[in-house]
Write a structure and sequence with these properties.
Blueprint: H1 8-13, H2 51-54, H3 58-69, E1 73-77, H4 80-89, E2 96-100, H5 105-115, E3 121-125, H6 130-136, E4 142-148, H7 160-169, E5 173-177, H8 182-185, E6 195-198, E7 213-217, H9 222-234, H10 240-250, H11 253-271, E8 277-281, H12 291-297, E9 305-310, H13 314-323, E10 328-329, E11 339-342, H14 343-347, E12 357-361, H15 367-379
Parallel strand pairs: 2-3, 2-4, 4-5, 5-6, 10-11
Antiparallel strand pairs: 1-7, 6-7, 8-9, 9-12, 11-12
């Protein structure tokens, strides 16, 4: 069988078929040395000098993500935020960047409170509207367009291919936060994006036991080399144990994402016309505003994330979260366990999130049990 004939489910489950050349082990060991031996001539034939950005533990996960995303190279980071901010830190003072109004709250805050103080010209726009993107672009000045799709926590969807065309015409890079979609459902680089970011803490790892981030590039260009420098010189790297955990977690990526997507759709459909719920936000519902775009660029499912707006308002929403038994009240997403969160309380003042909204991260439990638990909590 030719390598090109192997399905991504297969090479992911086997970690690209990794085998230790010396011991023939099927599972990588965990390198712990912080430094590497010099050659007699003072060189480094091993290609390694110092563990910080040359950790051999990075290689299995970076190689797998690169192949899944159809990219040129991947870099691991110590968190999703470290990966995302590196993209912006590799720009220059005065550069204009576009980002969505609805996006991951921590990155939105960082852009408005830190990136601007370093001289970046940050503009938040309605990224789901191609006309708004085209209108906001400043040819020659706009250097980066940042997209998150589906976007946390309203799950709005952006047309990656259309946005890539607009960015490319203006000479800007397009970076996509594809944390929610994962490479199982969407490959942004094939749709024209230049960079794809994952908070690997979430679905890539899938077990809520590490923080990590990844960036994958379509081409090894000047901006990418600056990103590499940001990681190396800023030290925003991952540890050996965390790298090993990420590699292990990704072996079940396809099973987990597909199970969560199937369950999320079932839950969304169950509560879509429930009088206790004012609105269900999920790209897989035909009535959802971004469904057509999602159906075009998400293959095999619509992800494991959805939100519900409780008809009785903010206090009732908080009460529903308090009364679930199987759903766990916790921040984060993408793990094997299902989580529920009153998102506006977490984001605080200035959040664009409706006060009656509950964010749901669907795990791999039996969906009938998850529905029953939400039912009893809504009744109470």
């Amino acid at each position: 069988m030719a390598e090109s004939d192997v399905h991504p489910e297969s090479f992911t489950a086997q970690g690209l078929g990794w085998v230790d050349e010396t011991t023939r082990a099927l599972v990588p060991s965990i390198p712990m040395s912080s430094t590497f031996l010099r050659d007699p001539d003072n060189g480094y034939s091993s290609g390694r000098i110092y563990m910080r950005d040359q950790n051999p533990a990075f290689e299995p996960a970076e190689a797998l993500i690169t192949k899944l995303e159809h990219g040129e190279q991947t870099l691991l980071f110590g968190s999703g935020m470290a990966a995302a901010t590196a993209v912006f830190m590799a720009l220059h003072p005065g550069d204009h960047v576009l980002a969505p109004k609805v996006m991951y709250w921590s990155l939105r805050n960082w852009l408005l409170n830190f990136a601007t103080s370093w001289g970046l010209d940050v503009e938040l726009i309605e990224m789901t509207d191609a006309a708004a993107v085209r209108s906001a672009i400043r040819p020659g000045s706009t250097k980066l367009v940042w997209v998150e799709t589906p976007a946390n926590p309203l799950w709005t969807t952006t047309d990656i291919a259309a946005t890539a065309e607009i960015a490319d015409e203006a000479g800007a890079l397009l970076a996509v936060d594809s944390t929610t979609a994962t490479p199982v459902l969407t490959q942004p680089l094939l749709l024209g994006a230049d960079l794809v970011m994952h908070s690997a803490t979430k679905y890539l790892n899938g077990h809520s036991d590490l923080t990590a981030g990844s960036l994958t590039t379509r081409a090894d260009n000047d901006h990418w080399q600056r990103v590499r420098s940001v990681r190396a010189q800023g030290g925003a790297t991952l540890g050996s144990v965390e790298s090993w955990l990420l590699s292990r977690g990704m072996r079940t990526l396809f099973l987990r994402v597909r199970a969560a997507s199937d369950s999320a759709l079932r839950i969304a459909e169950h509560f879509d016309h429930d009088d206790r719920v004012a609105e269900v936000l999920y790209p897989g519902l035909p009535g959802f505003q971004g469904h057509e775009v999602a159906a075009r660029q998400m293959q095999g499912g619509f992800g494991g994330m959805l939100s519900i707006r409780v008809a009785a308002g903010e206090a009732a929403a908080i009460g529903v979260a308090a009364n679930t038994k199987l759903w766990k009240r916790a921040t984060s997403l993408g793990g094997v366990e299902s989580l529920i969160e009153h998102r506006a309380s977490i984001e605080g003042a200035g959040t664009p999130v409706p006060l009656d909204l509950l964010r749901l991260s669907v795990g791999i439990e039996n969906p009938a049990d998850l529905i029953a638990d939400l039912d009893q909590a809504l009744n109470r």
